[in-house]
Design brief:
Helices cover 8% and strands 42% of the residues. The radius of gyration is 20 Å and the shape is globular. With 213 residues, the protein is mainly beta. β17 and β18 form a beta hairpin. The strands form 5 sheets. It has a 5-stranded mixed beta sheet, with no helix packed on it. Strands 2-11-12-13 form a 4-stranded antiparallel beta sheet, with no helix packed on it. A 4-stranded antiparallel beta sheet has the order 3-8-9-10, with no helix packed on it.
Amino acid sequence: MRVSNCVLLFFASLVIFFPTISLSIGTLTATNSVTNDQTLVSSGDVFQLGFFSLGNSDNWYVGIWYKNIPERAYVWVANRDAPLSNSSGVLKVVDQNIVLLDQNQKLVWSSNITKGSNTVAELLDSGNLVLREAEDPNNYLWQSFDFPTDTMLPGMKLGWDLNTGFDRYLTSWRSPEDPSSGDFSFKLNYHGLPDTFFVEKATDRIQKWTLER
């Protein structure tokens, strides 16, 4: 009885002195979820996915950052243009999709695919969040690398993907404390010789660089 009381006292002290202890999970399935006090961590502890807010803003986002860098460097934001109004969101797998729901269980963001049967979401050590069949770890039904925000990671590709039909390009943040889509994009021109160029959304002004071979 004395040992049990000591154990209970230990866990009670954790709650009092460390109320925001983060729990980490490896894979997102239909039976678990990520909330504000949880994160999804890649197998090699390289990247971490979770909820975050910046500065004095009331907006909350789901993003990916380097796990072992003290000053967070966000490399991808799921709902950059559809922020939560508070931290009471939940990320889960529903109907074969990764979905982000607000406190009223309203859909905020989704991977939005129409295929798959027994899907799981996994954060890879490359920083790529993938949705795949549970039995097939190499067949990605959806991946965050197809929807980059403002950061290009090793293994990520820009330009038109003939297999998926996606035109992948980088778009700046609105400000250091606002990850919503900003005014500048970095794109790859796939017509003729390969070119990279910046596009300013407000003026459609293009600044181009030609890649040298």
